[in-house]
Every structure is written in C-alpha cells, then in structure tokens.
Write a structure and sequence with these properties.
Elements (H helix, E strand, L loop, with lengths): L6 H6 L10 E5 L6 H8 L4 E5 L5 E6 L4
Antiparallel strand pairs: 1-3, 2-3
Length: 65
C-alpha cells in the first residue's frame, strides 16, 4: 500500500472494511510512524512491525495464517 501520506486518514478512522483485511504492507510518512500505526491498528487486532527497508511496515491480524 502506498497512499503517500494518507495513512493517518485511512487508519485513524478504522473503516469497517479493514476488518476483512489480514495483512498490510505499507509505507509511512511524516509524523505518522510505527507508534501511531500501532495505536490505530492494534485495537483492530493487528500486530505492527517496522521493516528494515526505508519507512516500511507490516501489519498482520492476530491469528492470520
């Protein structure tokens, strides 16, 4: 996912369709980084991990195989 800085807009709103998603690989920007991603995605059951390349993250829903 590459939405050029709109991560906060998308994830902070916790859209209902996100309940159908099990994995997200994306790029974060500006002041919306791993702590903010975790604050928005972990209540929805995701585990958020920073990837070693650039500003990339992986979010996996707990229990997803």
């Amino acid at each position: 996912m590459d939405i050029e800085g709109y991560e906060r807009v998308l994830f902070a709103g916790r859209p209902l369709w996100l309940n159908k998603v099990t994995r997200i690989i994306g790029e974060y920007h500006d002041s919306y980084r791993i702590p903010e991603l975790r604050a928005d995605l972990e209540p929805m059951g995701f585990i958020v991990t920073a990837l070693p390349q650039g500003n990339l993250f992986l979010a996996v829903r707990s229990g997803a195989s």
